[in-house]
């Protein structure tokens, strides 16, 4: 037993000394696959593609993962069609209204003002946007408001590329919360 322990100790010491590696040499790689391949730069010519370019456009008809395209074009007719087809997928809860307020203040208040009256900073030097508390705006369906935010209308540019669809729906709920005191005041007026 004593010989076995001494032999094992000597072998372990020899292995330990033999494990010292030269740091200037790479470690042994098992199945390196493509670790060592040299990639093409994005804008470099590539002899392996038909057009000779490395950076390729996505296949026609492909859409980003998690994205669902809006099937309505710009214009009032499409907004009217969206009014009947699109329904707000969110319930008007406190977190939804809070997120809608944050998104409204970030993307809409510079033109429409923080209260939706059309008195934002942009209105000082450019044509004043319509009040979102006016009768016309209150008569718009949720789907129509979503479409207008997405595609734009009149002088308002499209915000579909900047505002996520979930935030657009939450902005619609926030607009409704801004409009509700105005509706109540109008009903109470004789």
UniProtKB/TrEMBL annotation:
Coiled coil: none annotated. Keywords: Heme, Iron, Metal-binding. Gene3D superfamilies: Cytochrome c-like domain (1.10.760.10). Residues 95-179 form the Cytochrome c domain. SUPFAM superfamilies: Cytochrome c (SSF46626). The keyword S-adenosyl-L-methionine does not apply. GO terms for molecular function: electron transfer activity; heme binding; metal ion binding. This is Cytochrome C.
């Amino acid at each position: 037993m004593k010989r076995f322990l001494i032999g094992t100790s000597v072998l372990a010491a020899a292995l330990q000394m033999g494990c010292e590696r030269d740091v200037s040499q790479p470690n042994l790689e098992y199945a390196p696959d493509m670790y060592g391949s040299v990639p093409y730069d994005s804008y470099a010519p590539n002899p392996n593609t038909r057009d000779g370019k490395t950076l390729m456009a996505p296949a026609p008809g492909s859409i980003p993962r998690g994205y669902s395209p809006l099937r309505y074009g710009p214009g009032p007719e499409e907004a009217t069609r969206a009014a009947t087809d699109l329904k707000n997928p969110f319930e008007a809860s406190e977190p939804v209204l809070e997120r809608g307020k944050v998104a409204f203040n970030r993307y809409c208040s510079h033109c429409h003002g923080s209260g939706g009256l059309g008195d934002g900073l942009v209105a000082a030097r450019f044509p004043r946007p319509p009040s979102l508390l006016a009768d016309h705006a209150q008569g718009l369906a949720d789907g129509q408001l979503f479409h207008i935010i997405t595609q734009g209308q009149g002088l308002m540019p499209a915000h579909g590329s900047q505002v996520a669809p979930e935030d657009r729906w939450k902005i619609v709920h926030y607009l409704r919360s801004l409009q509700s005191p105005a509706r109540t005041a109008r009903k109470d007026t004789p």
